[in-house]
């Protein structure tokens, strides 16, 4: 870091906490536990290294967003609308056996994240790429390419 060749990611872009808070949005009636009521909300346990996975009901109770109710009155350009872009998602905290390891993956647009996922929106990461090509290692597109490359070589199941 002291050589000046590297910069902290926080100096280049902002990480956001997931747009849906289970406690506060639950009190507002934006969250349901019935899949008929809306779209599945991603939780931290959905984030694996390079893979967005489905969570079994045994691990977590699935939560759903009443999307139109949640978005009603939210101003365009605010965090509530980040679901319209691709993102790089990071687990807020990782298990003890992953000490000091960042667990990140590509989150396709259209997904909502709860407060246990931190993320970098695509439009802000693209600004970083223009000034720092080395950061491409964490780009959503680099993650996709790496995952497809692993799959092509039989490294994933």
Describe the structure.
It is globular, with a radius of gyration of 17 Å. It is of the alpha+beta class and 157 residues long. The chain has a four-stranded antiparallel β-sheet with strand order 1-10-7-8. A four-stranded mixed β-sheet has the order 2-6-3-9. It has one domain (10-152): Adenine-n6-DNA-methyltransferase TaqI, Chain A, domain 2 (Alpha-Beta Complex). Helices cover 22% and strands 19% of the residues.
* Unreliable stretches covering 5 or more consecutive residues: 131-138, 143-157
Radius of gyration: 17 Å
Named CATH topology: Adenine-n6-DNA-methyltransferase TaqI, Chain A, domain 2
* Secondary structural class: alpha+beta
Give a quick account of the main beta sheet: strands, pairing sense, barrel closure: 4 strands, antiparallel
Q: Briefly, what CATH class?
A: Alpha Beta
CATH-defined architecture: Alpha-Beta Complex
Widest sheet: strand order? 1-10-7-8
Number of helices: 4
**Arithmetic mean pLDDT:** 76
Shape: globular
What percent strand?
15-25%
Q: How many angstroms does the end-to-end distance come to?
A: 37 Å
* Total beta strands: 10
The domain tally reads 1
Measured as a percent range, the helix fraction is 10-25%
Order of helices and strands: EHEEEEEHEEEEHH
């Amino acid at each position: 870091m002291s050589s000046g060749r590297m910069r902290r990611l926080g100096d280049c872009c902002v990480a956001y906490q997931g747009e849906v808070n289970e406690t506060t949005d639950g009190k507002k009636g934006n969250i349901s536990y019935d899949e008929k009521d809306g779209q599945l909300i991603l939780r931290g346990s959905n984030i694996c290294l390079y893979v967005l996975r489905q969570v079994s009901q045994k691990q977590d109770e699935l939560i759903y967003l009443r999307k139109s109710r949640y978005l009603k009155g939210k101003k365009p350009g605010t965090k509530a609308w980040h679901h319209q872009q691709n993102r790089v998602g990071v687990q807020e905290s990782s298990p003890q056996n992953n000490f000091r390891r960042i667990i990140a993956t590509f989150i396709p647009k259209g997904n909502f994240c709860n407060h246990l996922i931190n993320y970098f929106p695509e439009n802000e990461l693209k600004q970083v790429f223009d000034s720092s090509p080395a950061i491409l290692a964490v780009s959503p597109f680099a993650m996709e390419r790496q995952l497809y490359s692993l799959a092509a070589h039989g490294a994933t199941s």
